[in-house]
Write a structure and sequence with these properties.
Blueprint lengths: L2 H4 L3 H9 L5 H16 L5 H28 L21 H26 L1 H18 L11 H24 L17 H24 L1 H7 L4 H29 L15 H13 L3 H31 L1
Length: 318
């Protein structure tokens, strides 16, 4: 073990492995799903809490999986400028990270049993596919994160599915359809919920884009063809701008609908932060600059999601 590794406590190492700077990608969409449920008068606290815990467990499990598989495949090297990876950095033995990955996904499955009982086949498919997709992101014979498909995975699972799935389990819990429905009951995934999910999808993917822009050179050398590697700096930065812009377009679109009021525009308060971090992403490429930008994008997502949730819920609760 290196001297640097020896100076890091086990607790801090595990916290680094969980990557707390990325956790808004798992939590913010669920919170938005709760805000939508309040807006539509279908709030169900226990399913909402289970969805929140399950989403965080899947996010952390995926982080452990990426840390482990990137290390054993030799993708993480000493030239990488990102946050320290605990497996490649010798902070935690690979077998322990692998065990933590398996344990975290197992806990997610246990939480998911309750959600499956309520949501039925749709939640069973979502839950199992989320775990499989998290494992295959950097693991397996064809890790799709190495072939430009990571952005699509994050957009779908940590955006669209996270928001709509959270809303769905609450909506179906308020209906008299019994346990384990085998179909999507009518009205459990309204179009407004799908539209709202695009904001979280945009910002969660933007977190990944910052990460991948920072790692373009090291990923290219390691043979990891992320979308940023395939697109290059210019188009990856434009992707980031488009994803952030989408997050601010969504509240405006919902505001135009008769059933959403002015409060839904509350996320626009975070535009100055969005402009500030976007300026960094457009002009910098070093880890020294983009590591803070990644954290600030996570903070932007958390703030945007919280204000969006408040804006969605306020007309119902006041």
């Amino acid at each position: 073990m290196s001297t640097a590794a020896a100076d890091v406590s086990k607790t801090k190492a595990w916290l680094m492995a969980a990557r707390p700077q990325t956790l808004p990608a798992g939590s913010a969409p669920v919170i938005v799903g709760v805000g939508l449920a309040v807006h539509e008068n279908v709030l169900a606290p226990l399913p909402a809490l289970a969805a929140f815990v399950g989403a965080l467990l899947i996010q952390i499990g995926t982080n452990f999986a990426n840390d482990y598989f990137d290390a054993v495949k030799g993708t993480d090297t000493a030239d990488r400028e990102g946050f320290t990876r605990v497996t490649a950095g010798g902070l935690i033995p690979p077998r322990q990270v692998k065990a933590a990955m398996a344990g975290t996904y197992t806990l997610a499955l246990l939480v998911g049993l309750y959600l499956v009982a309520i949501g039925g086949v749709p939640i069973l498919v979502i839950g199992l596919s989320s775990i499989v997709a998290g494992l295959l992101y950097t693991g397996g014979p064809y890790p799709y994160g190495y072939y430009g498909l990571g952005d699509l995975f994050v957009f779908v699972y940590f955006g669209v599915i996270a928001v709509t799935g959270t809303y769905y389990v609450q909506a179906v819990a308020t209906l008299d359809v019994g346990l384990f429905p085998t179909w999507l009951p009518g009205g459990t995934v309204p179009s407004a919920v799908v539209i709202a999910s695009l904001a979280a999808a945009g910002l969660s993917t933007a977190i990944l884009v910052v990460n991948n822009i920072r790692d373009i050179e090291s990923d290219r050398e390691a043979g990891k063809r992320t979308l940023a590697v395939l697109l290059g700096y210019r188009w990856s930065r434009l992707e980031y701008v488009a994803l952030v812009a989408l997050a601010y377009l969504v509240p405006v679109v919902l505001w135009q609908r008769a059933d959403f009021g002015l409060f839904v525009l509350l996320p626009l308060v975070t535009i100055p932060l969005a402009i500030s971090v976007t300026r960094t992403v457009l002009t910098e490429q070093s880890g020294e600059a983009l590591n803070p930008a990644l954290e600030r994008t996570g903070q932007l997502m958390a703030a945007h999601g919280l204000l969006f949730t408040v804006g969605l819920a306020l007309p119902t609760v006041i």
